[in-house]
Write a structure and sequence with these properties.
By secondary structure, the chain is α/β, with parallel strands linked by helices. It has 5 helices and 4 strands. α1 links the parallel β2 and β3. 23% of the residues are buried.
Length: 116
């Protein structure tokens, strides 16, 4: 199962493999606190797209389209496939720092990996 979770929420036993998917390291947290299996910052939106979006809900639909286009055009297919395989075998949690639980790149990434 592929899940998303705020990086500031405590690790849980059912998180499975935990991957940070933000380009920037989250403020106030150490690597030890996060209990990560990896940091896939190259799966996050480009700096330009992230700054354009600015977590404005009115831009959400366009952000989703642009971010999916970025993911499709990058050479990260092997990593997406690995995450897809890991999620088929057990829990995988994608960690993000954004406060908005309904409009964040981890939602788009999860759906992209799942093939939705």
């Amino acid at each position: 199962m592929l899940r998303i979770k705020r990086v500031y929420d405590a690790p849980a036993p059912d998180d499975g493999k935990r991957y940070l998917v933000d380009r920037l390291w989250p403020r106030g947290l150490s690597k030890l606190e996060l209990n990560l299996d990896g940091w896939h910052k190259h799966l996050s939106p480009s700096t330009e797209l992230r700054q354009w979006f600015g977590h404005e809900p009115a831009k959400w639909d366009e952000f989703k389209r642009r971010y999916a286009d970025e993911l499709a055009s990058r050479q990260v297919g092997h990593l997406l496939e690995r995450l897809r395989d890991e999620a088929a075998a057990g829990n995988v949690t994608l960690l993000f720092a954004a406060k908005d639980l309904e409009h964040n790149h981890a939602l788009v990434l999860r759906d992209f990996i799942a093939g939705a």
